[in-house]
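Collaborator request, handled under Task 6.
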Amino acid sequence: MPMRFTSSIIIKALCLALCLALLTPAALATTMDDTLTLGMISVKTRSLNPLISDEREFQSLTALMYDGLFSLDDDYRPVMNLAKECGISSDGKTWTIKLRDDIHFHDGTPCTAYDVVATIQEILRLAEEGRGQYNQLKFIIASATANSADSVVIKVSRPYYGVYYALTFPVLHQSQVQYDLPIGTGPFKVDRFEPTNLLYLSANENWHNGAPAVKNINVLFMATNRELITEYEYNRIDAAITRSASAGQYQTGLTNLNISYRTRQLETLMFSQRAFPLENELVRKAIRYAINFDAIANQVYMGMAQRTDTPLPSGTWMYRDSSEAYVYNPEKAKELLAQAGWTEDVDGDGVLDTFVNGEKRRLRLRLYVYEEQDNSVRVQVGNMISDYLAAVGIEAPVVTDSFTNISNRLRAKNFDMAIAAFQMDTVPDPGFLLMSGNTGNFCGYKSTAMDNLFKKLREAVDYGKYQDILWQIQDQFAQDCPFVCMYYRSGALLTRKVFTVVRNVREPEILRGIEVIGK
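Structure tokens returned to the collaborator:
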């Protein structure tokens, strides 16, 4: 019987000081024993069905239990997983996927094309109800049928490189797609689950990529970050996954590792182009130059944010580095404001003025910020932005409100500026933010050039062409400045045991690599 951990047991701290200081990651992997005790926040997940996940951190666990047709490597490029062959028709709209013949579910039954089809149909059904973790597939996949037990034919809505990313969804057994605990094909299987309390996983010894070296993962769920950090500090858990900015205080040292992981949460500074004078791109660009976003990320988030100047994550093949357009430069900001007609401070109050039809107008823009539970980091960010803008003559009072109220303002475009976060999709396509009239285009931004670029993007199957168009989109974004991208929020994996050798730790596969450690 494998050892199990309960909250009443205190695990003895491991003496890894010299090892952590001197050994390479590959050598450090040998320090990992066969059991890991992990802590994370979970207050509402009642189902392990990965198609309807409620909490983002929890997805790092379901990612260990289920496999997709494709997965993403360290370079964020698609690679085959359950699939062994992929054929694409000449028009790019029919994808024929051949499955590996060594794939089995946790109960020993083979994984077939019928399971893939049933999973896709359930994803599309949930999407029609406005639910599901993978509901964006309804815009990409039209239908799926099984040619045979090992061949599935997928009809897609358009020729599109993003289909590879869409096919990373987890495959469930055809009879269990609506179960709360469906069997999967992944490296770990469920032994016990008590919602909001604990989850015990054990190694799938028959996993198609080989038996995992880590044999047991015992997960304890906490209600608050304070409780989670306390359990870690008292050595009651080996590792903790958190997105709390307070984790930034834990630096990698002799007995502790702080592994940063990239989330898919993009933080932006939104501009309403219905608000005077934000319809003027010179003013928008001036605001972009006036704010030191690097300093904000470091001071408020203690480094737990990865800067990006475009909607695509930096450091990836998707990202277009046009750094000159985004360098903090308050003098350039003042110059652009002057070009836009904001040259005087008539009453000497530090706020620039201009005259419109003979009427004096002050450069005053309200900045809406919603408060986060358990912390005030967004309010701190808002106050820093307000201070930076005041230095160039823009008055930007911070208005705090509930998430619901500010969301309603964004949808109604009833705001001047707002700090808004977006959960980006696995598919590298930010069209929902930038295309005219699309769901996340709260700015009221309209650009025929941008719309045409996305039309081309969504007709590109070739990697090189797709990348080139993505870069053109980011060049157009820099030119038009519809809003400002600040950073992707980071999470922290605090650990005393090295159990991953991947170099790109990211959400939701935060634990990716644990199955091969020590091999």
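The cover message to the collaborator said: "The CA atoms of residues 198 and 313 lie 33 Å apart. The chain is about 25% helix and 25% strand. Please let us know whether this matches your experimental observations."
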